[in-house]
């Protein structure tokens, strides 16, 4: 859960460290298209970047940033998302997955509004593990009959199954290393969970 912005205009500010060439990030609608992204190799080391967007109001969004060789952005490097001059996401407001000495993945869900932002939560009853993963992913706490889809960084569905019980297993052995989204849904419910595939 992350704070929401004060409106629909947001700015991503980023200062890379000595491993900026391994940094990747993306901004996407929580259940849809990618707004923008940078993949590993597209950013320079020790360089400042600013990206500004006008997003749709009253919509849920997902920001994810990762580095596959270090477990944090080293000082003085940083990232932050701001809206109309007010910072609403830094590394302190993200859900963090850290493999000590080797990689980190930070992700945040937030909701734009036409006024004051409100938090957007991931369903705490559902678990997706292991994460990062390389073979199979278990999704627990799901209702029987719900659809489980895995989306790649472009939003394309790369896995699609239906739960038959409180737990489902998704085979990801053929997926390439990268950032994905697991969406659990039916006609009255939808929730998304970040997934990192790491070989």
Summed up:
This protein is mainly beta and 199 residues long.
Q: How would you characterize the overall build of this protein?
A:
This protein has 199 residues and is an all-beta fold. It folds into 2 domains: 9-119, Lipoxygenase-1; 127-197, Macroglobulin (MG2) domain (Immunoglobulin-like), CATH 2.60.40.1930. It is built from no helices and 17 strands. The chain has strands at residues 9-15, 23-29, 34-38, 48-54, 59-67, 78-83, 86-89, 95-99, 103-112, 118-119, 127-129, 136-140, 147-151, 157-162, 167-171, 178-186, 189-197. Strands 2, 3, 5, 8, 9 and 10 form a 6-stranded antiparallel β-sheet that branches. It is globular. The model is unreliable at 115-121 (pLDDT under 50).
Write a concise keyword list for the protein shown above.
199 residues; mainly beta; Lipoxygenase-1; Immunoglobulin-like; 2 domains; six-stranded antiparallel beta sheet; four-stranded antiparallel beta sheet; globular
